[in-house]
Design a protein that fits this description.
The chain is α/β, with parallel strands linked by helices. It is built from eleven helices and ten strands.
Length: about 260
């Protein structure tokens, strides 16, 4: 009887209000209202804590809590069953944490430091998986900053955070009017376009902003007019071929070529 009571005590560790809050944070309006977002899994949660993100609440299984030095804040122990109930994942991974949003989730371009090194600008990227992968690509290639148009998917949604596999902890993300940023920068502005010049034969500067466009429509006409260097990733198949590349794959190819030239951000 004692063991049964302990089981129900563990299950009730997540209150109804906490569960409601977690579910609400799936929506952007509640993330903005409360200044919080959800992260899951040892890798993502661990990277965020390591990089100084402030945890509001951590829910962890006994196995995970016992194996980690989690003190910020002390984790609430939950059963596997309860973690399943609060998780956004099909297969929960031992820990779910609610974090405070960074102080710069959205910023006026006039208040930002001038871009330097290599950075990415995303013009209307909509798919959470693509956005998460692009953040991960930026982290891999040492690109510290991503500028997002206001119609780009929210980087702090559970799907995007999960897709970054922890890279979101190391990449600074700003939402703003891209046109204002690109009009005022002194750096070259690169964009991949069908009427561009071969990426592998063009001169690439050590500093610049690389613009990547929407999955279906590419770079918008307004932003296209501000691109100073048009690039093309060439196809190597003769005749009929794929219509286009996935935006995350195109981002990886472009970043890789900049870095292959020996440039550092």
């Amino acid at each position: 009887m004692h063991e049964e009571n302990d089981f129900f005590a563990i299950r009730m560790m997540v209150s109804k209000n906490e569960m409601k809050l977690i579910r609400q944070l799936e929506q952007k309006k509640y993330r903005q209202r409360y200044g919080l977002f959800v992260a899951e899994g040892p890798k993502v949660v661990g990277d965020l804590l390591k990089c100084g993100f402030r945890a509001h609440k951590v829910f962890a299984t006994a196995t995970y809590a016992d194996s980690q030095a989690l003190t910020a804040p002390q984790p609430t122990e939950v059963s596997e069953e309860e973690l399943q109930r609060i998780s956004f994942l099909q297969h929960p991974q031992q820990v779910l944490a609610v974090f405070h949003l960074p102080s710069h989730p959205a910023t006026d371009s006039s208040l930002l430091p001038q871009p330097h090194g290599l950075s990415l600008a995303l013009d209307g990227v909509q798919d959470p998986g693509n956005l998460g992968t692009i953040i991960r690509i930026a982290d891999w290639f040492g690109i510290d900053t991503i500028y997002c148009s206001t119609d780009t998917a929210d980087a702090w949604s559970p799907k995007v955070v999960q897709a970054t596999m922890g890279s979101i902890a190391r990449v600074s993300i700003h939402y703003l009017q891209l046109s204002e940023l690109l009009k005022t920068t002194a750096l070259p502005v690169y964009g991949t376009l069908l009427d561009g010049q071969n990426l592998y034969t063009q001169e690439l500067a050590a500093e610049g902003i690389i613009v990547m466009g929407n999955e279906g429509n590419g770079i918008s006409p307004e932003i296209r007019r501000l691109i100073t260097h048009r690039l093309l990733i060439p196809s190597y198949r003769q005749g009929d071929t794929a219509e286009s590349l996935n935006v995350a794959i195109a981002t990886a190819i472009t970043c890789a070529e900049f870095k292959r030239r020996g440039h550092v951000s």
